[in-house]
Design brief:
The chain has a domain of 136 residues. 81% of the residues lie in helices and 0% in strands. The protein is built from 14 helices and no strands.
Length: 376
């Protein structure tokens, strides 16, 4: 007996209607997420840095609030004012000097007022690049305008980018200042904010691991922000202010170099020792001021040896290459604030990922059964 298949049109209509309904809902959610991101993206870096600051400074905030009768808002305000006076103001001064240095260098090159010393003959003996470097250096010493003209338009593009960086400093400094204000607001509502963050982690990773991931993220943020970025920032500010007091050219540029070296865990003496040599070789300083600046810069170059025991409560579990890549990548995409956010964010992501890798269910079952992954 032949049976003919009869399609269920009513079932097909219901399924197609449900499927269309799901597609529409998913599309609306995607549009809403993209719209929220477009609106929030200009402030994303600032808000992330403010959150990092709030997490890092929150223990100090709680200690201060306890001493003034539990007034969370007043404690947050006092910390923000202290940060503006101690950190933000010197940072603005150094950034302004950095911009003036870049603009002055470009102007001097265009006006042919830059004096390039003659190269040593030993440079020509360097393997591979020695001859080329000696030739370019000699041309810069003898005919700098001709060298500049021969390097056009690349040099013009470089100058344009440098001026763009200087122009963007104003916005970065404003965001840097606003991030401290936002961090103060976050600290004032720290308890409710901590509960919200734990709820988010519990919703993503489950209730069992949500609290653990919250503690892990908080500990990593504080370790990286205080033990790496905080030490690098403080040492860069100390050396930068000393360079400005000593009237060393390009003090802002050198302070940025010290900052990058600090994040990379390189000694600041790589910058301060050549500066000390320049102070004595330039002939622009009397013996007394030269001795004072030498002592101050040498001590400033060793400041991280004192700051690390004070600020690094525990070791940073993330490998230093992870922190360095995060800092450089963040700086390449979002400037100075991006360097801080990138280093901390990548370290947190690395810690969470490695914790997920170590919590292998198969390994746990083998361990519980009395075996080992290596022998299984």
């Amino acid at each position: 007996m032949n049976m003919r298949y009869e399609p269920d049109h009513e079932l097909e209509d219901r399924l197609s209607g449900r499927l269309l309904d799901v597609f529409i809902r998913v599309g609306l959610v995607v549009v809403l997420v993209l719209l929220c991101y477009l609106i929030f993206s200009p402030f994303l870096t600032m808000m992330l840095w403010a959150l990092i600051l709030a997490i890092t400074i929150y223990p100090l905030h709680q200690m201060l609030a306890t001493r003034i009768g539990g007034k969370q808002g007043l404690a947050a305000t006092l910390i923000v004012l202290l940060a503006v006076g101690v950190i933000v103001t010197p940072t603005i001064m150094l950034a302004s000097e950095f911009g003036d240095s870049v603009q002055g260098l470009i102007k001097n090159v265009r006006d042919n007022t830059v004096q390039i010393p003659a190269p040593s003959e030993k440079i020509a003996t360097w393997p591979v690049v020695g001859g080329r470097v000696h030739a370019v250096w000699s041309q810069a010493h003898n005919d700098l305008p001709g060298l500049v003209q021969s390097m056009q338009p690349k040099l013009g593009e470089l100058a344009t980018k440098a001026l763009g960086i200087v122009a963007a400093l104003g916005g970065s400094l404003l965001m840097f200042l606003c991030s401290f204000v936002v961090a103060g607001i976050i600290m004032a509502y720290g308890e409710s904010g901590a509960r919200v963050m734990q709820d988010i982690f519990e919703r993503i990773a489950g209730i069992a691991r949500g609290e653990e991931f919250t503690r892990l993220s908080t500990a990593t943020v504080r370790a990286v922000a205080s033990g790496v970025i905080g030490i690098a920032c403080i040492q860069a500010l100390i050396i930068g202010v000393l360079l400005m007091i000593a009237r060393v050219p390009f003090a802002g540029v050198l302070a940025v170099v010290v900052l990058v070296f600090g994040v990379a865990q390189l000694p600041a003496l790589l910058v301060t020792l050549p500066v000390i040599g320049w102070i004595w070789a330039s002939g622009e300083y009397d013996t007394g001021p030269a001795v004072i600046y030498t002592v101050l810069l040498f001590v400033g170059g060793l400041a991280d040896n004192v700051l690390k025991p004070l600020m690094l409560a525990r070791g940073v579990d993330a490998p230093m290459p992870v922190i360095l890549i995060g800092a450089l990548g963040g700086m390449a995409t979002n400037g100075i604030l991006g360097m801080f956010v990138g280093a901390t964010g990548l370290a947190v992501g690395y810690q969470i990922f490695m914790r997920w890798v170590r919590e292998n269910p198969e390994r746990a079952r083998q361990t519980a059964a009395g075996g080992s992954p290596s022998t299984a």
